[in-house]
C-alpha cells in the first residue's frame, strides 16, 4: 500500500466505522485528516492478504446479496498480477463454483487474452460486487458501496500496473464514467493509477461484432504492459549495464 498523504481538504463523505473495519477504502479519493487516520490504523492493523480478503468475502453478510448467493466469488489470480480485470458481478456459473469468469463470458475473455498475448498468470480477475445479484440484475448502489472495501483492498495489495475495466457498471462504479462506447479503448490515469476501459465480454455473446472491439482494446492493454515492462528494463539497465 502506498503511504497516505494527509491534507486538510474538506471531506464530502461520512465514515461508517461500525459497518466495516475497512469501509474507509470506499472513499479512495478522500484526503481528509479523519479518513487518513483511520486508513493508517486499518493498514497497521491489517497484515492484509488476498487469502484473508477471500475468507472475509466468503463469510460476508454486509448486503442483501448474501441472502440469495450460493457462493461468494472473491476473485482469482496472484498478488503479483500486473493487471486487475474488474467486471460487474458473478453470474450463474460463478455463483455455482465460487470462481470469477468461468461461464461463456469468461471463456471469451480467456480466448481474447490468449490471442493478444496476455498470460493468465499476469492477471487478477474480480468484480465490483462479489455475490450474484438475483436474475443477474445490475447491482444496486448500496450493494456496490458495501462491497467496495474488498475491491479497494485487493487493488492496494496487488498494486497493479494497470486496471482493466470491463463494462459500464465497473466504469461508473470506479471512475464515475457514463458512456462505455465513447470511452472504450482509452487509457486514462486517475490518482496515479492507470486504467484501460473496455466492454464487458458478456456483450460479445449477443453481438459478435463486439468481439473485435474487445480484441482491439485488449491489444492496446497488451502493448501498454509491454511498454511498461520495457521502461522498467531500461531503467534497470541504467544501473546494472547491458
Ligand atoms: S456482495 Fe459484497 S458486500 Fe454484499 S454480501 Fe457479498 S461480499 Fe458482502
3D structure, described in words:
- The two termini are 32 Å apart.
- The protein has ten helices and five strands.
- The model is unreliable at 1-28 (pLDDT under 50).
- The chain has helices at residues 33-46, 50-58, 65-68, 92-97, 104-116, 141-158, 168-175, 180-183, 203-206, 210-240; strands at 83-87, 123-127, 162-166, 187-190, 193-198.
- The protein folds into two domains: 1-47, no CATH class; 48-240, Uracil-DNA Glycosylase, subunit E (3-Layer(aba) Sandwich), CATH 3.40.470.
- With 242 residues, the protein is of the alpha/beta class.
- Strands 2-1-3-5-4 form a five-stranded mixed beta sheet, with helices on both faces.
- Bound molecules: iron/sulfur cluster.
- Iron/sulfur cluster (SF4) is lined by residues 57, 60-63, 65-66, 72, 129-131, 143, 146-147.
Short précis:
The protein has 242 residues and is an alpha/beta fold. The protein is built from 10 helices and 5 strands; from the N terminus they run H-H-H-E-H-H-E-H-E-H-H-E-E-H-H. A 5-stranded mixed β-sheet has the order 2-1-3-5-4, sandwiched between helices.
